[in-house]
Amino acid sequence: MPEPDLDVVALGSAIVDVIATADEDVVAAHGLVKGTMALVDTDRAEELYAAMGPAVEVSGGSAANTAAGVASFGGTAGFVGKVRDDQLGAVFAHDIRSAGVVFETAPASDGPPTARCLVLVTPDAQRTMSTFLGAATGLAADDVDAALIERAQITYLEGYLWDPPEAIDALRRAIALAHDAGRRVAFTLSDPFCVDRHRHEFLDLVRADVDVLFANEIEILSLFQVDDLKEALERVRDLCDVAAVTRSEHGSVVVSGGDTISVPAVPVARVVDTTGAGDLYAAGFLYGLARGESLRQCAELGSLAAAEVIAHVGARPQVPLASLLA
Protein backbone atom coordinates (compact mmCIF):
# COMPACT_ATOMS: atom_id res chain seq x y z
CA MET A 1 0.00 0.00 0.00
CA PRO A 2 1.53 3.36 -1.03
CA GLU A 3 1.98 6.13 1.54
CA PRO A 4 -0.98 8.55 1.66
CA ASP A 5 -0.49 11.86 -0.15
CA LEU A 6 -3.73 13.46 1.07
CA ASP A 7 -4.40 14.54 4.64
CA VAL A 8 -8.18 14.16 4.42
CA VAL A 9 -10.81 12.97 1.96
CA ALA A 10 -14.32 14.07 2.90
CA LEU A 11 -17.64 12.56 1.80
CA GLY A 12 -20.77 14.64 1.99
CA SER A 13 -23.56 16.52 0.34
CA ALA A 14 -22.42 18.83 -2.48
CA ILE A 15 -24.52 21.92 -1.82
CA VAL A 16 -24.60 25.54 -2.92
CA ASP A 17 -25.48 27.81 0.03
CA VAL A 18 -27.85 30.74 -0.48
CA ILE A 19 -27.29 33.03 2.52
CA ALA A 20 -29.37 36.04 3.57
CA THR A 21 -29.89 38.00 6.78
CA ALA A 22 -33.36 37.87 8.31
CA ASP A 23 -35.24 39.10 11.37
CA GLU A 24 -36.49 36.67 14.00
CA ASP A 25 -40.11 37.18 12.86
CA VAL A 26 -39.29 35.94 9.35
CA VAL A 27 -37.91 32.70 10.76
CA ALA A 28 -40.96 32.26 13.00
CA ALA A 29 -43.46 33.18 10.29
CA HIS A 30 -42.28 30.30 8.14
CA GLY A 31 -42.42 27.76 10.96
CA LEU A 32 -38.65 27.29 11.10
CA VAL A 33 -36.75 26.27 14.23
CA LYS A 34 -33.94 28.78 14.67
CA GLY A 35 -30.43 27.33 14.66
CA THR A 36 -31.34 24.00 13.07
CA MET A 37 -31.28 22.37 9.63
CA ALA A 38 -34.46 20.97 8.05
CA LEU A 39 -34.79 19.04 4.82
CA VAL A 40 -37.29 20.53 2.36
CA ASP A 41 -38.83 19.54 -0.95
CA THR A 42 -38.83 21.57 -4.16
CA ASP A 43 -42.03 23.50 -3.38
CA ARG A 44 -40.89 24.45 0.12
CA ALA A 45 -37.47 25.49 -1.19
CA GLU A 46 -39.09 27.79 -3.74
CA GLU A 47 -41.42 29.28 -1.09
CA LEU A 48 -38.54 30.07 1.28
CA TYR A 49 -36.33 31.41 -1.51
CA ALA A 50 -39.09 33.85 -2.49
CA ALA A 51 -39.25 35.10 1.11
CA MET A 52 -35.51 35.73 1.40
CA GLY A 53 -33.92 39.12 1.00
CA PRO A 54 -30.78 39.81 -1.06
CA ALA A 55 -28.58 36.75 -0.83
CA VAL A 56 -25.02 35.58 -1.29
CA GLU A 57 -24.53 32.30 -3.16
CA VAL A 58 -21.44 30.27 -2.28
CA SER A 59 -20.54 26.62 -2.58
CA GLY A 60 -21.00 24.81 0.69
CA GLY A 61 -22.04 21.55 2.27
CA SER A 62 -20.65 20.47 5.64
CA ALA A 63 -17.95 18.02 4.59
CA ALA A 64 -17.03 20.13 1.57
CA ASN A 65 -16.47 23.11 3.87
CA THR A 66 -14.20 20.95 6.02
CA ALA A 67 -12.18 19.83 2.99
CA ALA A 68 -11.81 23.46 1.86
CA GLY A 69 -10.68 24.38 5.38
CA VAL A 70 -7.99 21.70 5.39
CA ALA A 71 -6.71 23.04 2.07
CA SER A 72 -6.78 26.61 3.43
CA PHE A 73 -4.40 25.53 6.20
CA GLY A 74 -2.00 24.34 3.50
CA GLY A 75 -3.08 20.72 3.83
CA THR A 76 -4.11 18.33 1.08
CA ALA A 77 -7.73 17.28 0.74
CA GLY A 78 -10.20 15.53 -1.53
CA PHE A 79 -13.99 15.57 -1.65
CA VAL A 80 -16.59 13.05 -2.83
CA GLY A 81 -20.11 14.36 -3.46
CA LYS A 82 -22.75 14.39 -6.20
CA VAL A 83 -23.91 17.34 -8.30
CA ARG A 84 -26.04 17.54 -11.43
CA ASP A 85 -24.59 18.68 -14.76
CA ASP A 86 -26.35 22.05 -14.37
CA GLN A 87 -25.27 25.62 -13.64
CA LEU A 88 -25.09 25.23 -9.85
CA GLY A 89 -23.23 21.95 -10.29
CA ALA A 90 -20.60 23.70 -12.40
CA VAL A 91 -20.36 26.48 -9.80
CA PHE A 92 -19.84 23.97 -7.00
CA ALA A 93 -17.15 22.06 -8.90
CA HIS A 94 -15.29 25.24 -9.84
CA ASP A 95 -15.38 26.62 -6.29
CA ILE A 96 -14.12 23.52 -4.51
CA ARG A 97 -11.36 22.88 -7.05
CA SER A 98 -10.27 26.50 -6.88
CA ALA A 99 -10.00 26.05 -3.10
CA GLY A 100 -7.33 23.42 -3.78
CA VAL A 101 -9.49 20.34 -3.15
CA VAL A 102 -9.38 17.26 -5.38
CA PHE A 103 -12.92 16.73 -6.73
CA GLU A 104 -13.44 14.04 -9.35
CA THR A 105 -16.97 12.71 -8.72
CA ALA A 106 -18.83 12.50 -12.05
CA PRO A 107 -21.94 14.74 -12.21
CA ALA A 108 -25.37 13.19 -12.72
CA SER A 109 -26.78 13.63 -16.22
CA ASP A 110 -30.42 13.21 -15.17
CA GLY A 111 -32.56 13.36 -12.05
CA PRO A 112 -32.96 16.25 -9.59
CA PRO A 113 -30.87 19.45 -9.81
CA THR A 114 -27.83 20.31 -7.72
CA ALA A 115 -28.59 20.68 -4.01
CA ARG A 116 -28.97 24.07 -2.37
CA CYS A 117 -29.23 25.21 1.25
CA LEU A 118 -31.26 28.31 2.08
CA VAL A 119 -29.63 29.95 5.11
CA LEU A 120 -31.32 32.67 7.17
CA VAL A 121 -28.89 34.47 9.48
CA THR A 122 -30.61 36.28 12.37
CA PRO A 123 -29.10 39.30 14.23
CA ASP A 124 -27.70 36.98 16.94
CA ALA A 125 -25.58 35.27 14.20
CA GLN A 126 -27.52 32.01 14.44
CA ARG A 127 -28.19 30.28 11.14
CA THR A 128 -31.40 28.48 10.26
CA MET A 129 -31.00 26.19 7.29
CA SER A 130 -33.54 24.68 4.91
CA THR A 131 -31.86 22.19 2.63
CA PHE A 132 -33.07 20.79 -0.68
CA LEU A 133 -30.76 17.83 -1.21
CA GLY A 134 -31.49 17.30 -4.89
CA ALA A 135 -28.67 15.54 -6.71
CA ALA A 136 -26.67 15.09 -3.48
CA THR A 137 -28.94 12.18 -2.53
CA GLY A 138 -27.73 10.33 -5.63
CA LEU A 139 -24.26 9.70 -4.23
CA ALA A 140 -23.74 5.94 -4.55
CA ALA A 141 -21.15 3.33 -3.69
CA ASP A 142 -19.88 3.39 -7.28
CA ASP A 143 -18.96 7.07 -6.82
CA VAL A 144 -16.45 6.18 -4.09
CA ASP A 145 -13.08 5.66 -5.75
CA ALA A 146 -10.94 3.19 -3.83
CA ALA A 147 -7.69 4.82 -4.94
CA LEU A 148 -8.83 8.21 -3.59
CA ILE A 149 -9.74 6.78 -0.17
CA GLU A 150 -6.42 4.95 0.00
CA ARG A 151 -4.58 8.21 -0.71
CA ALA A 152 -5.91 9.88 2.44
CA GLN A 153 -4.71 9.53 6.02
CA ILE A 154 -8.22 10.26 7.30
CA THR A 155 -11.61 9.67 5.68
CA TYR A 156 -14.17 12.15 7.02
CA LEU A 157 -17.93 11.52 6.78
CA GLU A 158 -20.89 13.79 7.53
CA GLY A 159 -23.97 12.56 9.36
CA TYR A 160 -26.23 14.64 7.12
CA LEU A 161 -25.64 12.05 4.39
CA TRP A 162 -27.11 9.22 6.46
CA ASP A 163 -30.65 9.71 5.09
CA PRO A 164 -30.63 8.44 1.47
CA PRO A 165 -30.08 4.64 1.30
CA GLU A 166 -27.69 4.93 -1.66
CA ALA A 167 -25.59 7.47 0.21
CA ILE A 168 -25.39 5.18 3.26
CA ASP A 169 -23.98 2.50 0.97
CA ALA A 170 -21.39 5.02 -0.26
CA LEU A 171 -20.36 5.91 3.30
CA ARG A 172 -20.10 2.27 4.32
CA ARG A 173 -17.94 1.53 1.27
CA ALA A 174 -15.65 4.42 2.18
CA ILE A 175 -15.35 3.16 5.76
CA ALA A 176 -14.47 -0.35 4.59
CA LEU A 177 -11.90 0.93 2.10
CA ALA A 178 -10.28 3.22 4.66
CA HIS A 179 -9.96 0.53 7.28
CA ASP A 180 -8.72 -2.04 4.77
CA ALA A 181 -5.98 0.45 3.88
CA GLY A 182 -5.10 0.99 7.54
CA ARG A 183 -6.44 4.56 7.53
CA ARG A 184 -8.53 6.39 10.14
CA VAL A 185 -12.23 7.23 9.86
CA ALA A 186 -13.72 10.45 11.27
CA PHE A 187 -17.44 11.18 11.54
CA THR A 188 -19.51 14.22 12.49
CA LEU A 189 -22.99 13.92 13.99
CA SER A 190 -23.94 17.05 11.98
CA ASP A 191 -27.24 18.07 13.60
CA PRO A 192 -29.42 17.14 16.62
CA PHE A 193 -32.37 16.31 14.36
CA CYS A 194 -30.05 14.04 12.39
CA VAL A 195 -29.09 12.30 15.64
CA ASP A 196 -32.76 11.90 16.57
CA ARG A 197 -33.48 10.19 13.26
CA HIS A 198 -30.52 7.80 13.38
CA ARG A 199 -29.51 7.49 17.04
CA HIS A 200 -29.18 3.72 17.20
CA GLU A 201 -27.39 3.47 13.86
CA PHE A 202 -25.02 6.27 14.86
CA LEU A 203 -24.20 4.57 18.16
CA ASP A 204 -23.43 1.32 16.36
CA LEU A 205 -21.39 3.17 13.75
CA VAL A 206 -19.30 5.06 16.31
CA ARG A 207 -18.71 1.90 18.34
CA ALA A 208 -17.66 -0.25 15.39
CA ASP A 209 -16.20 2.01 12.72
CA VAL A 210 -15.33 5.54 13.89
CA ASP A 211 -11.89 6.52 15.15
CA VAL A 212 -12.54 10.26 15.57
CA LEU A 213 -15.98 11.67 16.40
CA PHE A 214 -17.06 15.31 16.09
CA ALA A 215 -20.18 16.72 17.76
CA ASN A 216 -21.45 19.85 19.39
CA GLU A 217 -22.78 19.80 22.93
CA ILE A 218 -26.43 19.45 21.94
CA GLU A 219 -25.67 16.59 19.54
CA ILE A 220 -23.62 14.56 22.02
CA LEU A 221 -26.31 14.95 24.70
CA SER A 222 -28.91 13.81 22.19
CA LEU A 223 -26.82 10.82 21.11
CA PHE A 224 -26.82 9.41 24.64
CA GLN A 225 -30.16 10.96 25.68
CA VAL A 226 -28.67 12.56 28.78
CA ASP A 227 -28.75 16.10 30.21
CA ASP A 228 -25.24 16.22 31.65
CA LEU A 229 -22.22 16.83 29.40
CA LYS A 230 -19.86 15.06 31.80
CA GLU A 231 -21.96 11.92 31.57
CA ALA A 232 -22.03 12.10 27.76
CA LEU A 233 -18.24 12.50 27.66
CA GLU A 234 -17.76 9.45 29.86
CA ARG A 235 -20.07 7.44 27.60
CA VAL A 236 -18.37 8.46 24.34
CA ARG A 237 -14.90 7.91 25.82
CA ASP A 238 -15.55 4.17 25.69
CA LEU A 239 -16.84 4.13 22.10
CA CYS A 240 -14.06 5.62 19.98
CA ASP A 241 -10.41 6.66 20.14
CA VAL A 242 -11.04 10.42 20.07
CA ALA A 243 -14.14 12.57 20.51
CA ALA A 244 -14.06 16.34 20.04
CA VAL A 245 -17.10 18.24 21.34
CA THR A 246 -17.57 21.92 20.51
CA ARG A 247 -19.31 24.26 22.97
CA SER A 248 -19.70 27.56 21.08
CA GLU A 249 -18.17 30.42 23.10
CA HIS A 250 -17.03 27.92 25.74
CA GLY A 251 -14.54 26.34 23.34
CA SER A 252 -14.24 22.58 23.01
CA VAL A 253 -13.44 19.50 25.01
CA VAL A 254 -11.60 16.47 23.67
CA VAL A 255 -11.66 13.04 25.27
CA SER A 256 -9.32 10.19 24.39
CA GLY A 257 -8.70 7.21 26.62
CA GLY A 258 -8.33 8.59 30.13
CA ASP A 259 -7.50 12.12 28.94
CA THR A 260 -9.87 15.09 28.97
CA ILE A 261 -8.60 18.24 27.27
CA SER A 262 -10.47 21.56 27.46
CA VAL A 263 -9.52 24.27 24.95
CA PRO A 264 -10.99 27.80 25.01
CA ALA A 265 -12.59 29.46 22.02
CA VAL A 266 -10.53 32.01 20.13
CA PRO A 267 -12.19 35.39 20.82
CA VAL A 268 -13.57 37.44 17.94
CA ALA A 269 -14.50 41.10 17.87
CA ARG A 270 -18.00 40.33 16.61
CA VAL A 271 -19.82 37.13 15.74
CA VAL A 272 -21.44 37.72 12.35
CA ASP A 273 -22.55 34.26 11.16
CA THR A 274 -22.05 30.89 12.84
CA THR A 275 -22.56 29.02 9.55
CA GLY A 276 -19.70 26.56 9.11
CA ALA A 277 -18.20 26.95 12.60
CA GLY A 278 -18.33 23.22 13.29
CA ASP A 279 -17.14 22.38 9.78
CA LEU A 280 -14.07 24.59 10.12
CA TYR A 281 -13.35 23.36 13.65
CA ALA A 282 -13.21 19.87 12.16
CA ALA A 283 -10.93 21.16 9.40
CA GLY A 284 -8.39 22.53 11.86
CA PHE A 285 -8.57 19.47 14.06
CA LEU A 286 -8.14 17.02 11.17
CA TYR A 287 -5.33 19.06 9.64
CA GLY A 288 -3.47 18.94 12.94
CA LEU A 289 -4.17 15.24 13.41
CA ALA A 290 -2.91 14.36 9.94
CA ARG A 291 0.25 16.40 10.60
CA GLY A 292 0.98 14.62 13.90
CA GLU A 293 0.04 17.43 16.29
CA SER A 294 -1.08 16.75 19.86
CA LEU A 295 -4.82 16.59 20.55
CA ARG A 296 -4.61 19.92 22.35
CA GLN A 297 -2.93 21.51 19.33
CA CYS A 298 -5.55 19.94 17.05
CA ALA A 299 -8.33 21.52 19.11
CA GLU A 300 -6.53 24.87 19.11
CA LEU A 301 -6.30 24.75 15.31
CA GLY A 302 -10.01 23.94 15.22
CA SER A 303 -10.81 26.93 17.42
CA LEU A 304 -8.65 29.18 15.23
CA ALA A 305 -10.47 28.13 12.06
CA ALA A 306 -13.91 28.43 13.66
CA ALA A 307 -13.09 31.96 14.89
CA GLU A 308 -12.16 33.06 11.38
CA VAL A 309 -15.35 31.78 9.78
CA ILE A 310 -17.82 33.17 12.34
CA ALA A 311 -16.44 36.70 11.87
CA HIS A 312 -18.00 37.03 8.39
CA VAL A 313 -20.95 35.79 6.33
CA GLY A 314 -20.32 32.43 4.66
CA ALA A 315 -19.07 29.02 5.66
CA ARG A 316 -15.57 29.09 4.14
CA PRO A 317 -12.51 31.11 5.14
CA GLN A 318 -12.04 34.54 3.61
CA VAL A 319 -8.30 34.55 4.32
CA PRO A 320 -5.90 31.61 4.04
CA LEU A 321 -5.97 29.84 7.39
CA ALA A 322 -2.26 29.14 6.97
CA SER A 323 -1.65 32.89 7.34
CA LEU A 324 -3.13 32.77 10.85
CA LEU A 325 -0.79 30.08 12.14
CA ALA A 326 1.99 32.55 12.94
Description:
The protein has one domain (6-324): UDP-N-acetylmuramoyl-L-alanine:D-glutamate ligase (3-Layer(aba) Sandwich). It has eleven helices and 14 strands. α7 (192-209) crosses α8 and α8 (217-224) packs across α9 (229-237). By secondary structure, the protein is α/β, with parallel strands linked by helices. It is globular. The chain has helices at 24-29, 42-51, 62-72, 87-98, 146-151, 165-180, 192-209, 217-224, 229-237, 277-290, 295-310, and strands at residues 6-11, 15-21, 37-39, 56-60, 77-80, 101-103, 115-121, 127-132, 152-158, 184-188, 212-216, 242-246, 252-256, 259-263. The relative contact order is 0.16. β5 (77-80), α4 (87-98) and β6 form a beta-alpha-beta unit. The strands form two sheets. The protein has a nine-stranded mixed β-sheet, with helices on both faces. Helix content is 39%, strand content 22%.
